[in-house]
Design brief:
The chain is of the alpha/beta class and 208 residues long. The protein has one domain: Ribonuclease Z/Hydroxyacylglutathione hydrolase-like (Metallo-beta-lactamase, Chain A, 4-Layer Sandwich), CATH 3.60.15. The chain contains five helices and eleven strands; from the N terminus they run βββαβααββββββαβα. The protein has a six-stranded mixed beta sheet, covered by helices on one side. The chain has a five-stranded mixed beta sheet with strand order 7-8-9-10-11. A hairpin with a 4-residue loop joins β9 and β10.
Length: 208
Amino acid sequence: MIHNLAAGVEAFTSNAFLVSGPGGVESPVRGDDGDTGRRVLVDTGSNFDVLPPIRDRVDGVDAVVLTHTHRDHVGNVEAVCDAFGVETWGFDTGQPSVDNEIPDGATVELGLGSYEALHTPGHKNDHLCLYDEDAGVLFAGDLIFQNGGFGRTDLEEGDRDTLIRSIDRVRDRVDGERLRELHVGHGPSVLDAPFDHVELAGRAARTR
């Protein structure tokens, strides 16, 4: 199950996805044997108390996985790690918020799913996307958004050409016919024809 714990929050924050159980937003919380799998928070958000919505859904968190380390995505890292005694995982352990490395191409266990980590710089150098081909689920962080939106490149480490190459990499890696869910760093998740939004982002990044 995938819950966006930042849904409805009015403060400036990224989305924060709690992943547990066997699949995406339409899956039951637990598998047939009651297993929630590896309970992981994908990005922590910032400027709101993320602990109550976590505790409303699970009795603990096993890890925090970061798509990248902009402040709005990592602001709640310390609170989550202190509350649940967990460590963080991300691309660059040189960043203060990252305890453990996820290298490009590594497999990341979220819930009961296995996600491929795709290094996708352009918005920030340490940016990762996470893709489960079997489940048809993509966590795109701040690379791709609904309706062809794409990550800012006017911040430090931003680069438009690099961003376009990263979008192209995701487009080429994802099975467009099987992609069912696109979970993004800001705004609503895309559950209707999500691959169209990936392709649109690639075109828009070349023209805007």
